[in-house]
TrEMBL record:
Residues 56-289 form the Rhodopsin domain. Residues 418-428 have a biased composition (Basic and acidic residues). Residues 382-428 are annotated as: Disordered. It comes from the Eukaryota. The lineage of its organism: Eukaryota, Fungi, Dikarya, Ascomycota, Pezizomycotina. It is a multi-pass membrane protein. It comes from Fusarium torulosum. Signal peptide: none annotated. GO terms for cellular component: membrane. It holds the Pfam family Fung_rhodopsin. This is Related to integral membrane protein PTH11. Keywords: Membrane, Transmembrane, Transmembrane helix.
Amino acid sequence: MAPFPTVNGVTVVMLPPEGYIVNFDHPQRRHQMESYIISGVGITLAFLFVFQYLYVKFWILRKPDGETACLITAWIFSIGVQFVSLRSFVIGATGVHAWEMPIQTFNDGNKLTFISPILYAVCTAFSKVALTLFYRRLSPQRWWRWSVYSVLFLVAGYNLAIMLVIIFGCTPFEKSWDFTILEGSCVNRPAVYICTAILGIASDLILLVMPLPMILRLQMPRRQKAGLIVLFVIGSATLVTSVVRLVLLVPFVSASDYTWVLSSAIVWIYVEANLLIICASLTTLRRFFLHVAPKFIGERGSSAGYDLGSNRGSRQHPFRTIGSGAKKSRKVRLEVDIEDPGFDLRTIVQAQPVQTQITTHESEEQPEEMIRQIRRQESLRKFGSASVKTQKWDSRKDSDDEERAIVQTTTVTVVYGPREEESKGNDD
């Protein structure tokens, strides 16, 4: 007796149900058109978000980092897993009954099904690692950094374990996709897929909950705080897709006609693979709009932190300084040195200190505000001598950029001395 049945002269994996009319030329299809549409729309949206992310990192900040490399890697593998899965729909190996395809097509589909979860694990790992690297910059506190590193280790570890189980899950190796090899053994692959979904849900939940306590404690307008919360809620969309995918994978455990059952879960993999990239790209979205369309998010062009009319990459300091409220006729020379490459989303969720040095020269038209600030220094003895004084103020009291002022404390060093012209006159 042949190990595999034959229907209409074609060797198949299993016999059809009684009364089912097999049509190898035009078999029944499931979720084929939905896969093409969802994948196409998702890849396009993911490309747009990645474009704005790379625009900020390479063009505005001019400082790509490890987070950028992780996102690019995740995006490449996201496209790869979708093309591999779409190929299984094209050849009729997914979304088609197992008894309505030749056994060679069944094996070709198995090979694609073997490759796609490996690519998907790489996509998931690098996209979530990119997000955790962003989280690392939210706070310099040691406990926070250790928490971030723990999540990073969890994400990288479970995805690596899943990859190894899938790759080396069968003996001999070809049995992973060749259904005609009867000898050897394999791990319970449906259980591995379900385990992947469960671990994805757990990691998504952790990444969603981690920054919320820090955001809720921020002293910032409710509108901006609500916007941040909405941003992280959007980022949790992958949590919903993981739950849906888990529910759809449960019947896959006991299904013999799994080429038909698996199609619905693959459609949600397209959704989740693109959402992983979109969510990891959200960290620069506000910065992108501040640069190209500040009015779109309710900001003035001058508050975006850039001089859009000057050379690209030139930055303006967004804070008021001592004496900035004085009349324009008063001559105060400012020398500003800001080490931070720019105000990204991380400055919204962290009170990040900015070092600013202000050098002013004595004249008869000394700003009143400058005099009041300097007189507060207990160590000031007289105005004519050159001295260096340090003072601190909370920029929440006075700032044109409401959002940045609330979350930053600025340290100002004032160097006060005679004007160069007057010094030369005294020497003469």
